[in-house]
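ESCALATION

Customer reports they have been waiting on this structure for their group meeting. Please prioritize. Original submission:
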Amino acid sequence: MLKKNFKVLGTWLINFLELQLFITLATWPLLISWGIPLSYASPLGNLLGNPLLSLFLCLSSLIFITELMCIPNNWIISLLEACTRTWNACNTHIAPHAMLIATPAQPPIFLLIIPICALIIMHYRKKIQTITRISMLCLFLGIMTLLFKKNHTTAKIDLLYKNKALSLSIHNNKSYLIMHSAHRTRPSNQKKIHSWIQYTLRPALAYHYGHVQLEALCLMQPHHDAYLLAQELCKKHMIKKMYLYTNKTQTHQELYDDLIAVAKRNTITITHIDRIYTTKL
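Update from on-call: job pushed to the front of the queue and completed.
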């Protein structure tokens, strides 16, 4: 009986993996067009996420019903909070940048080939064994990833942040974000900066260069928003180094100290650039 259950579970996992690979290839052209990286951990995320999502919806419905009926529900709320903490822990630890594949923009004809080839492989389900189909899908994904990879020598684009241009440049296949000078605008809050990173910087980095992480952030005359932006990039592990060119004013001293602390916690190298010499902090 136990052996039979393991066999059923193994068959289900194999079919689940095959379905995930097919969905990944079918939706990959859309992800490339939108500048969204592909994740190696997506099958594992779906495997863990679907039960957690079902549990979350079930507990939320129970809380709603018990509130309407005036039934004590503290234990249900505790379960929901535990479920939420588990989900946040999975998002934090299971999907690091090393598992992301950012693919630069490709001609439409190449993007069209991906789902067509995936459909052809899946069409012959009765003639090709499941393990063989999974191997073919994995091989095709790997080949297309290598073919789509670009090595940039030098390039530059401008990104708008509060109607000011920031330079997103690449040199020797390493990307740099440069904030040239202080913006004379009202300071932004953390949510707006988070949205700009998620929906402007990250897609541009993936779409134009095929990167998921910046080699360095260069802040020239940093101000309130620049310090908050740098802190957010450090927390998201989107930068490896940081260069600061500034005369530390008393106005931004607290933000400067917070940035140093955040960078050290995330093992990010900060270099202070002076007009005469360069020293590492």
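Sent to customer with the following note: The radius of gyration is 24 Å.
Escalation resolved.
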